[in-house]
Hints:
By secondary structure, the chain is of the alpha+beta class. Helix content is 58%, strand content 18%. Helix 3 (46-88) packs across helix 14 (337-368) and helix 14 packs antiparallel against helix 17 (398-424). It starts with a helix and ends with a helix. The relative contact order is 0.17.
Amino acid sequence: MSGHARRLGDRVRGIGASLRSGSTAPFAPFEWIIAGRYLRARRRGGGVSVVAFFSVLGIALGVATLIIVLSVMNGFRAELLSKIVGINGHVFVTPIDKLFTDYTDLSDRLSKVAGVRAAIPLVEGQAFASSPYGGSGVLVRGVREQDLDGIAAISKNLRGGTLSGFDDGTGVALGRRLAESLGLQAGDQITLSTPKGATTPFGTAPRTKSYTVKAVFEIGMTEFDATFVFMPLAEAQAFFNREGDVSLIEIYLDNADGVAEMREPLEMAAERPVLLTDWRQRNRTFFGALEVERNVMFLILSLIVVVATLNIVSGLILLVRDKSSDIAILRTMGATPGTVMRVFLINGALIGFVGTLAGLLLGIVITLNIKPIQRFLFPSAWDPTVRFLAEIPAQMNATEITVVVITAFLLSLAATLYPSWRAARLDPVQALRYG
Length: 435
């Protein structure tokens, strides 16, 4: 007799002894042994193992897809928030009863409030930018050089030129996509036109003036890179006929989420009636739409996991039918219905565990390498003009990943209950007669 046959005989005798003793604990080793053997392909049971394989594959793909999509949605929101808040500030102070002609003193008072990183006076207006190669509508922002240097999204992302001496001349800084669309680079001339020009007896005359492109920046958000033009504050006041005042004062906080607590101190520091709005109010619709899209995507993709767990149900039902004679023999040897049920519970749990673990690892690996994978497989799939951002972002959230993994595994366990219950109720006499 071969060594394998002897080991198999010893194992069977050990199982029989355990069953006859009637003292086996739940999930005893022999139950795991039987469950493991049932998952391996044998002549008649080959189809069962194929179903088990596709069940594992389905759960793995479902879990991985959920992790990847949720991470991309999280990264998309975080990156957009970083770009929007990074260039637009957190709180916006606008006048109510009189213009901000004392903007220097006012911005100094606001900047001294605890929790305020910077208070920047701005002149803001729309204009039409043109060059010999095209034209485009732009948003012009007049700002002091010291304040522009303090906006890291601009000063640390220059792609050409310099901001040194920005206040000294009539140079402007513009986004890279705007520069490309107009065929411009640092040192070239750009023409800006606005209807808010000088007042004449016949009305307000449009103003057109040419400026030197002093710097080209790239924030990484298409909307900003294609529309923003920064010019010296004094030049913007003259260009938009502001007569020594500013449109608003933009405030950057140490904590972007602390805008509610900062309202009262800022109103007191202003020493006059002012209107305060924050980045949440300005972007409520946009970020609300992102949240709805994220939740809908989660629900839709969860169906992949649900369908995969249904494969476990069909696979275990096939297994119960295929192993009906084995179940009957186990019952005649003394196995209780609970023992039989646990064998098939272990089968389903193993399928769910392996599938969930494989999906977790696959999802993490793809998420960590999402940018090179996208550039290699789908180089033209990410259009920055449509997606707002220059690159596909991804940010994993440990809590969300844990919820996905636990949910997938619990669904797998739930899918095993009905087939396991059917196996436990199998009549051994009928199974031996017709099996």
